[in-house]
């Protein structure tokens, strides 16, 4: 029987309701009982509609191991046009799994709607996973944003800790960052929170690999650039952007005193670049952010990523951020850039090389750092170039690392 959301097949007089398997909506005892409760309410005059039996039907297959799932699984979600990200994790690899011993073996998977930042489905395979599932049902029914889910901390050591691992492993890789809803214009407090760097930057005495002098000098130049007023951002704002970008890698909020929008951009570009869409960038402009300001944040955050990865690569701890310099941003616009096909205007054409051209100082800084950490633009074109590695070896290494990090290369 086809029924309405009120479980009514629509007979004359409205006296008939049909709950349970007979209406074919969700052939499971608990859903039938949900519908029956709802019918009871409707008969009693409390108008209620059933919707959870479309989006959040929990189901457990009581095999050994159990299979538990709720929500729309990956394939149908994709077919429905949802931009899905999936995350998988081995349940046995949680602390509780390790404590329980070899029998705890299984997989958990989340399917996330990347646009709406909501959980679409969760599937668990393993012993007793039917009990893990209700948290997923609540998350879907309650439309709990992924960002908020970070704060639903499971107790240690329980199997529910798989939720933490799943959020970490999600296909945004690096993970979806938090998008905090609050922020303040950078004030005195923000300035005071910047680390005081009394030592010479990039001494890296704990590095296990030697640093070429050219690289060390360039890293110091980059820190000076970061601290100085830029084209659209002041020195304190640039350093605060870097602070938020670092915090986003561990899903925390640096509370660096930036306005909410700037915080969101710094965190998103840092830790979820693959979620940056044309619509999101255009929405930033709608919210009042100059496109050049966005480009400057991309410049600062992407060079920070390169610097931090390099420093970690030689076996050292990340360098403390520099003290910001006073002064005003220049506010200069590059009159030569044009909207072409990129998310931002560029000159003279689209492509990674010109991505920052709306803010020439950022483009120049990228070129300089790039030349030291990788190759100069001129050498990029020389496929026979030989340094410690040949060009071919560099490309192979870069492609492999990109693959392992689930990046575009
Ligand atoms: C093998 C199997 C395993 C299942 N395992 C699970 C599970 O693990 N978890 C889960 O949630 N669901 C499970 N289900 C599904 C679940 O059993 C059904 O969704 C649920 O029982 C449906 O409840 P219902 O009241 O809507 O219908 P039913 O349970 O089918 O009840 C309908 C009743 O109406 C009676 N009836 C039919 N015609 C007439 C008539 N003309 N006059 C009077 N009475 C009539 C029938 O005899 C029956 O008793 C399983 C189903 C099967 C078959």
Automatic annotation (TrEMBL):
InterPro entries: Class-I_Pyr_Nuc-Dis_Oxidored, FAD/NAD-linked_Rdtase_dimer_sf, Pyr_nucl-diS_OxRdtase_dimer. The keyword NAD applies. Keywords: NAD. Residues 57-163 form the Pyridine nucleotide-disulphide oxidoreductase dimerisation domain. Residues 316-336 are annotated as: Disordered. Pfam families: Pyr_redox_dim. It comes from the Bacteria. Belongs to the class-I pyridine nucleotide-disulfide oxidoreductase family. This is Pyridine nucleotide-disulphide oxidoreductase dimerisation domain-containing protein. The lineage of its organism: Bacteria, Bacillati, Actinomycetota, Actinomycetes, Geodermatophilales.
